[in-house]
Structure formats: structure tokens, C-alpha cells
Design brief:
By secondary structure, the protein is mainly β. The chain has one domain. Helix content is about 10%, strand content about 45%. It is built from 3 helices and 10 strands. A hairpin with a 4-residue loop joins β8 and β9. The N and C termini lie far apart (about 40 Å).
């Protein structure tokens, strides 16, 4: 985990962190959502590029954001061995690589239960970084935690 933390620190410059990250999904909005209800919008990520996004939660308590060619699992309240602390991971849009486009940092704490009901719950910091690819017009996984999985969805937004 120390290696991942050092890599994240190296990738995110002090200048990028000194600016307020753009936030489109937060706990106050998400806690009001009913299952299958969606938050939709569009985010200006720079360079005249605006990406549509959709955030939703299933009736089982799993959910995530669909943006920039990826569906990213960022909400988990369904206790199937792993949940996220407060159920929602942070979504921070910051220009990590200084190319003029907002990249996505997903972070938070994962709670992992053991094999039996008597096993202690383990906590682990989760960090995944998705860099915007100008040529492909999509986000690319650059630092990916296996608990924050991302897939290319079959259904396109809008």
C-alpha cells in the first residue's frame, strides 16, 4: 500500500491539489436517491470537452458512475464481503497530469469481512486514478485498485 500511496503522491502535483477539485457526486446527493434513480449531467473537463455522466444505485446497494467510456464501481452498501465506508467513495476531478483536462481520482476506505462471521473486518484505503485520453475521448485506468473495478459499459449514455 505504501508503494501505491507514493505513486499517487508522485502523480498528483502540489499545484493540482491546491485547486478545489470539481465534485459532481457527493454523499448528500446520493443518500436521497431511491434505487434505480439516477443523477445525470454533464461535466466540462477542459479544452471544450464536456462529458455526460450518470450515477445510479441498484436495489441491492451497488452502484457507480458512468463517465468517459467507463462504468466505475464507486458505491457499495451490499454486504457481500466488501462494502465502502459510508457506502460512497470520493469522486475528485483534478488535472493530475497538467494536460488541461480533468482526470478522475476515486478514493475512500474499503471494509472487507473475513471468511466466517467471527472474523474481524479489515479496513483498507482504496485509490484509483483515471486519466482522460484526449485522442480516445475516454478515461483510462492508470492506477486501479481491484475493489474499485471499472468496465467499458455496453450501453452508451444518452
Amino acid at each position: 500500500m505504501k508503494t501505491l500511496t507514493l505513486l499517487v503522491a508522485a502523480l498528483i502535483s502540489f499545484d493540482a491539489l491546491s485547486k478545489e477539485p470539481a465534485a459532481i457526486i457527493d454523499y448528500a446527493l446520493v443518500e436521497k436517491l431511491a434505487p434505480y434513480e439516477e443523477l445525470k449531467g454533464s461535466l466540462d473537463i477542459g479544452g471544450g470537452v464536456s462529458l455526460p455522466y450518470k450515477f445510479s444505485i441498484t436495489s441491492r446497494g451497488d452502484g457507480g458512475i458512468n463517465i468517459g467510456g467507463l462504468y466505475i464501481h464507486t458505491y457499495d452498501s451490499h454486504n457481500d464481503g466488501t462494502i465502502f465506508q459510508d457506502h460512497l467513495l470520493k469522486h475528485q476531478f483534478v488535472d493530475v497530469n497538467r494536460d488541461g483536462y480533468l482526470d478522475l481520482i476515486v478514493s475512500g476506505v474499503g471494509l472487507f469481512k473475513g471468511v466466517t462471521e467471527w472474523d474481524a473486518i479489515r479496513k483498507r484505503t482504496l485509490v484509483s486514478i483515471f486519466i482522460y485520453d484526449i485522442v480516445g475521448n475516454k478515461y483510462i485506468n492508470t492506477v486501479l485498485d481491484e475493489a474499485v473495478w471499472a468496465i467499458e459499459p455496453q450501453d452508451k449514455l444518452y
